[in-house]
Inverse folding.
């Protein structure tokens, strides 16, 4: 800790370097978009939560890929793998949902240092549970034994888990934020905690000699630290699809994953956002912040801070969204508004933060 | 080497253990198939080269995921990444092709120990080249910086690359081998060499103190060992789609990847196969076999041995398949026949081998 505040870069994830490297990769990939011809061509610019490809028949195929990150290390420390299986579904279906698509299928890619049948059984159970909640079939996948490529929390324990989800959406019902107008309401759906982003930072500040252990009960969390960190990422498919079926007034859908509320800036709209009524973040966020003396702007950049998914809706459609949340047992509340005057920015007035580009700063 | 013949299991990939562990995972995943309802449901049993999901409109969505395996370690040793980018496309599009689908899109998942912009540029170029050859768009992907999960050929060099490909196929034109009849002809398409399977074994027997280096010129290969091992996996999309458009006489399509010609046993047919006219394997295979005293049955189980893709066709459709190959500049030749009497087996009479289940044995 060296007595200085810890930022995400110093905890092992170099975001700026990643951005510049990624730009060189994407420069090539953007040139592939015309290769399939009319059927198969992408209909959205790259960089949104999911890509959409034109399948003909007025039908769009949404596709997105993501991994569970270093949460796999917590699973290894705990010897518990069911949650991470569910997470593999969650991180992908929540992204596909952001274009207004219904997720239908997922394939998983599991790289392991060693095959552990009990671990595979638990992962399978978790994938099943995630698939059940999301209404997707897992009809394929790949397990690669690549001991020379991996390492983990203990010799032989290493693994990496990612997935790819596909969904379908009518081309004339794609949601990408282009219809967002000044005054539209942002409805925030409660997260279950830290989800799958910022685990590198959380582990860096919470675990280690003289700090917490994954087995230790933490009174303010009401559970062990490991249980808190492993808590499955919430799956927002059912309430959001329900709302999409009941109203055409939904203008934006955002999975609040890495980059926190900056994800709202991925919408294809000139509007910015003012979030005035954020719910209290769960205790785990305060624990990370205090243990690592992590600046508040860093916390809001890395973490969901209690809101895992946002639905942007016309004022008259908000009640429909809230009713859909309630019908499916999800906590949701209006947390702010789209604001034309805030072009390209996310303002959190109560927290004294403004986000722009890739970071938050104090107001 | 310890003076004893090297098998795939002793070189670091425990196939039997993987099979049993995987069965426990798949037991859960098979139960997810009904979750999407009518639209989205899988229409093939799991375990084929690609899954196919019913999209309505008579349209099937094919999906498959695979990685480039430990070929990434050779890329790291050489500091050359373009080939591996193309491979990421190849291993996935060739699988999707096996259900008769036209690949349309691919997403890649790249886990890196460190972000290296030059490496990302080369990977991007290779992905672009693969996408161009396959006619797919790469509209999305994920790069994860997970240094704690990875290791590689040198500190910071580690990475793992996988992809997921989707394609479309008319539900009434799905090819899965169920139409294969006794006497159907197997047309073998030439591979470019070792492709992406068996690199663990190849590295184990060829590289190391007192053996070859990746930089060393190997006279019988006509290039350096590294260049030979990195040679991109051939992409069979264009000639095979061309043939599928010209004839309805194609009854089976098999990507000859891990498990070699045993992949023919994935067809939904009671017929087995007799391969009487296999082309001479490329010199790299002899080099691996001799350097490691690898039994011939092991070689045929791990490697493609010169044939990267098989098209099974009615005798009257063979000329169409061969003409499509020639039109697109691919080498292909009839290599054998489907045989009702060989149920569940692949016989290689000239090599004195019979394959069944997961292995070959001497006849």
């Amino acid at each position: 800790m060296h007595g200085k505040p810890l930022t995400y870069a110093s905890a092992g994830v170099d975001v700026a370097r990643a951005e510049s490297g990624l730009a060189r990769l994407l420069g090539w990939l953007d040139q592939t978009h015309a290769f399939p011809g009319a059927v198969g061509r992408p209909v959205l610019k790259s960089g949104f939560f999911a890509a959409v490809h034109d399948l003909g028949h007025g039908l769009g195929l949404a596709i997105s890929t993501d991994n569970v990150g270093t949460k796999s290390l917590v699973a290894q420390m705990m010897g518990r793998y069911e949650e991470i299986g569910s997470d593999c579904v969650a991180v992908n279906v929540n992204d596909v949902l952001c274009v207004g698509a219904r997720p239908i299928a997922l394939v998983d890619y599991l790289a392991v240092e060693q095959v552990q049948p009990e671990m595979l059984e638990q992962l399978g159970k978790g994938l099943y549970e995630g698939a059940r909640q999301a209404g997707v079939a897992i009809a394929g996948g790949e397990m690669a034994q690549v001991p020379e490529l991996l390492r983990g929390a203990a010799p032989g324990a290493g693994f990496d888990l990612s997935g790819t989800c596909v969904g379908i959406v009518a081309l004339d019902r794609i949601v990408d934020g282009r219809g967002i107008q000044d005054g539209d309401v942002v409805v925030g759906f409660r997260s279950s905690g830290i989800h799958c982003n910022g685990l590198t930072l959380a582990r860096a500040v919470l675990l280690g000699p003289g700090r917490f252990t994954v087995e230790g009960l933490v009174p303010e969390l009401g559970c062990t630290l490991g249980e808190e960190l492993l808590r499955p990422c919430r799956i927002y498919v059912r309430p959001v699809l329900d709302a999409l079926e009941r109203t055409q007034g939904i203008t934006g859908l955002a999975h609040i994953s890495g980059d926190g509320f900056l994800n709202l800036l991925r919408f294809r709209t000139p509007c910015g956002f003012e979030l005035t009524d954020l719910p209290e973040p769960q205790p785990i966020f305060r624990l990370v912040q205090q243990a690592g003396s992590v600046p508040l702007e860093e916390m809001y950049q890395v973490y969901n801070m209690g809101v895992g998914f946002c639905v942007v809706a016309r004022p008259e459609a908000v009640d429909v969204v809230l009713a859909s949340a309630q019908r499916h047992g999800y906590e949701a509340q209006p947390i702010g508004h789209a604001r034309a005057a805030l072009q390209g920015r996310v303002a959190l007035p109560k927290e004294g933060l403004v986000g722009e580009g890739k970071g938050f700063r104090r107001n």
Summary: Chain A is about 30% helix and 25% strand.
